[in-house]
Write a structure and sequence with these properties.
By secondary structure, this protein is of the alpha+beta class. The protein has seven helices and 13 strands. The protein has a single domain, classed as Ribonuclease Z/Hydroxyacylglutathione hydrolase-like (Metallo-beta-lactamase, Chain A). It has helices spanning 34-43, 58-61, 64-71, 83-87, 89-95, 167-176, 197-203; strands at 2-8, 13-19, 24-28, 47-52, 74-76, 115-118, 121-127, 136-140, 145-147, 152-153, 156-157, 186-188, 195-196. The strands form three sheets. It has a six-stranded mixed β-sheet. Helix 1 (34-43) runs parallel beside helix 3 (64-71). The longest helix is centred in the N-terminal third of the chain and has 10 residues, at 34-43. The model has no long low-confidence stretch (mean pLDDT 97). The protein binds zinc ion. Zinc ion binds next to loops.
Length: 208
Amino acid sequence: MNIEIIPVTAFQQNCSLIWDDEKNAAIIDPGGEAEKLIGRIEELGLNLEAILLTHAHLDHVGAAEQVKQHFGVEIWGPQEEDRFLFDSLPEQSQRFGMPTIHAFLPDRWLHEGETIHAGGGIFEILHLPGHTPGHIGFIEKQKKAAFTGDVLFQGSIGRTDLPGGNYTQLISAIREKLFKLNGDMIIIAGHGPYTTIEHEKTNNPFLK
Ligand SMILES: [Zn+2]
């Protein structure tokens, strides 16, 4: 699996583009700068199969509709508990001082226990609430790559002070779900450098 991280928006959100050797591709959390993302997908000659979303914060979903319109593919995820955040996208744009993003909904909600195929990956869905109520992670066990949005960062954890946030839920999602994954699983987080489960178990000051 090829993985390219494309930071987008003023928040430097890690949009991930993944593809296999047949150029079947998926994009995870296209948070903004739609033209840049569309341009890169076309430059690489990829066949985009799906748009995957970890949660409904503006910096993760802001370009999803434009990418969808351009390539005619569906938006999958997160879990339905994030519906209120999709409804509030215009307010989120105002609050963050970004151009207005109109409210939309994904074509398909995803749920813990489901497995999806996209971009050459086979992803197990984990529900990881606490940063937002419907937050999910896309876990590719064979390729040892987990796309987990704003739950666990290198040396840090996701914010829980935004609408629907819950600190206790976040800590238990990390301890009881992410920390059950193999230590060498690579965590591709929504912001900052990638890390591994083992590294965070040993070093993350929020999880000692
Ligand atoms: Zn977020």
